[in-house]
Amino acid sequence: MTRRSMTVGRDRFIVGPWHERPDIAYLSVAPSVHTLTNPNSVVRCVQSLLESGYNGAVTAALRGNDAHVFASAGFDERERLLVLRHDLDDLVDLDPEHATLIRRARRRDRPAVLAVDDRAFESFWSLGEDGLSEALTATASVRFRVLETTGVRGYAVTGRSGEIGYLQRLAVDPEATARGFGTALVLDSLHWLKRRRGRNMFVNTQQSNAPALALYQRLGFRVIDEHLTVMQWPAR
User: Fold this and answer.
1) What does the pLDDT read at residue 19?
2) How far apart are CA 34 and CA 129, in angstroms?
3) How many CA atoms lie within 13 A of 102 on its CB side?
4) Are 79 and 206 in contact (CB under 8 A)?
5) Which phi and psi (to 5°) does residue 173 adopt?
6) Among the CATH numbers 3.40.630.30, 3.40.50.300, 3.40.1280.10, 3.30.200.20, which is that of 84-226?
7) What is the tens place of the pLDDT at every residue in 128-172?
8) Cα(203)–Cα(167) distance, rounded to whole angstroms?
9) Contacts 24+ apart (CB under 8 A), 223-228
10) Residue 97: partners with Cβ closer than 8 Å, 6 or more residues away
């Protein structure tokens, strides 16, 4: 079962299995011309999911207003994510040796990419096929790169909307850490956005993910006064 759109009144959601689990639903707010304000829409969406056989739900990373509406509908905070911004000033050059290891990802790379993702993240945060497809279609312009030595050792998905870029996903095989691969993939994304006259790049990460936070800050990202929240239902 793949993710699909669900309309409840004026509100539209994206729903589907959470990491292909048949009992837990993934739930996000679809792009819309108006702001989500009605908790009853969320409640009705959950009721529909229950009727479809799910017994719980986990949301995408939500911004402040959406998280507040979900909380009013009975959802609980599962994880808070820091948001970081890079202004693309004084970019570090990408090491030529690492640059030769980065290439455009192909469809046949997806199994290897998802295997790296599974090893790089605990199961709750692993992306899955649906999550990867969503990341690749979230913006009109996207850059999907793998870093390859003896097989795929890391990958990055970067999106662009106008002057704003988003590092949608970054993963490096745990067996290939401390070799500069994460740095190379991030710099590749930053330079790509700057070549396209981008102004800012954003990325989010768990507060508890100290290695990722250190990497981003070392490369010039700064934590901003905003956060995202992953919610879950039933509340713990």
Assistant:
1) 79
2) 29
3) 25
4) yes
5) -55, 130
6) 3.40.630.30
7) 888 899 899 989 999 999 999 999 999 999 999 999 999 999 999
8) 5
9) 223/82, 223/83, 223/84, 224/83, 224/84, 224/85, 226/63, 226/64, 226/83, 227/64, 227/80, 227/81, 227/82, 227/83, 228/61, 228/62, 228/63, 228/67, 228/80, 228/81, 228/83, 228/204
10) none
235 pLDDT band, cuts 50/70/90, is low
Residue 14 CB-density burial (10 A; 0-12 exposed, 13-18 middle, 19+ buried) = middle
Rg (CA), the chain: 18
d(Cα 225, Cα 121) in Å, to the nearest integer? 26
Task: Give 164's strand partners.
Answer: 161, 200
| Structural domain spans, the chain | 4-74, 84-226
Percent of the chain topping pLDDT 90: 83
For residue 32, which of 2, 75, 77, 65 has the smallest C-alpha distance?
Answer: 65
Tell me if residue 185 falls in helix, strand or coil.
Answer: helix
8 A C-beta contact, residue 181 and residue 98: yes
The rounded mean pLDDT for the chain is 93
The three-point CA angle 71-47-45 to 5° equals 65
pLDDT band at 18 (very low <50, low <70, confident <90, very high): confident
The secondary element (H helix, E strand) that includes residue 84 is: strand 76-86
Residues linked to residue 180 through DSSP beta bridges, in sequence order: none
Amino acid of residue 168: Q
Q: pTM of the full predicted structure?
A: 0.90
- Note whether 176 and 154 are within 8 A (CB): yes
Tokens of 130: 């649906």
